[in-house]
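Example S7 (structure tokens).
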């Protein structure tokens, strides 16, 4: 069944007289995820989470359209991992600039960038494009920060961890390799202590920080954990989408 809120599936016949209030742009990455998850993990996640959240919001009357997922992200720290595909922040700026120019012209003034990948940093880009397109309301959601992961998972991490493995076991178990292939996802810590205190930052060199490309132990993952997280997450994000759709962007503060 064609879903009218997914641009890749709908058609001009259906939408030529529509007036969508909010566009949602899922953005992922193409990169190794420990030994056992597919390179498209971030894309599959943002695709499915955005679509399910949009479905719930649409059923409540939100006029939204989900754009096709951008499959490449910023992977500058993973140059040495075979076939991790990097696009630079300046390329990301150019892509976003063209999409926003189009939305602005079409009078769809609200955009939610739906981010799946930690290396994608949209804040400086949004600041600059916000100046250029003052009518546009552009916001960014890192969906993986929407819920307290500690309430759902025993082992924490940020790449191919228990959360991502559980999610994939729930939504695409056919693409997850058997447990005996799973690496431990151990993150090595920087010898300079201040980095781990969170106030000093350097890009992590992926081949040095982990042996299996994973960060976070996946071994307690299960499809049941993935299902519970997916359901609560899409419910929360659907409420956000509904609220953003409804909100008056000229009168946002109380
Ligand atoms: Zn990921």
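Recovered sequence:
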């Amino acid at each position: 069944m064609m879903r009218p809120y997914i641009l890749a599936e709908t058609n001009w016949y259906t939408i030529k007289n529509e007036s969508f209030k909010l566009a949602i742009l899922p953005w992922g990455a193409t990169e190794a995820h420990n030994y056992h998850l597919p390179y498209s993990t971030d894309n599959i996640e943002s695709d499915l989470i955005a679509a399910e959240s949009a479905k719930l919001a649409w059923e409540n009357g939100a006029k939204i359209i989900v754009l096709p997922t951008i499959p490449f992200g910023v992977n500058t720290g993973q140059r040495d991992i075979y076939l991790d595909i990097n696009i630079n922040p300046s390329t990301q700026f150019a892509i976003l600039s063209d999409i926003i120019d189009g939305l602005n012209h079409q009078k769809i003034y609200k955009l939610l960038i739906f981010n799946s990948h930690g290396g994608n940093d949209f804040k400086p880009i949004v600041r600059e494009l916000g100046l250029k397109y003052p009518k546009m309301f552009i916001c960014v959601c890192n969906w993986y920060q929407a819920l307290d992961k500690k309430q759902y998972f025993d082992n924490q991490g940020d790449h191919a961890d228990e959360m991502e493995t559980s999610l994939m076991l729930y939504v695409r178990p056919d693409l997850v390799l058997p447990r005996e292939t799973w690496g431990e996802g151990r993150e090595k810590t920087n010898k300079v202590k201040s980095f781990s205190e969170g106030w000093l930052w350097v890009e992590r060199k992926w081949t040095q920080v982990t042996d299996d490309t994973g960060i976070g132990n996946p071994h307690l993952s299960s499809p049941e954990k993935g299902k519970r997280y997916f359901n609560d997450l899409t419910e929360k994000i659907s409420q956000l989408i509904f609220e953003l759709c409804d909100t008056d962007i000229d009168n946002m503060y109380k």
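Notes on this example. The mean pLDDT is 97.
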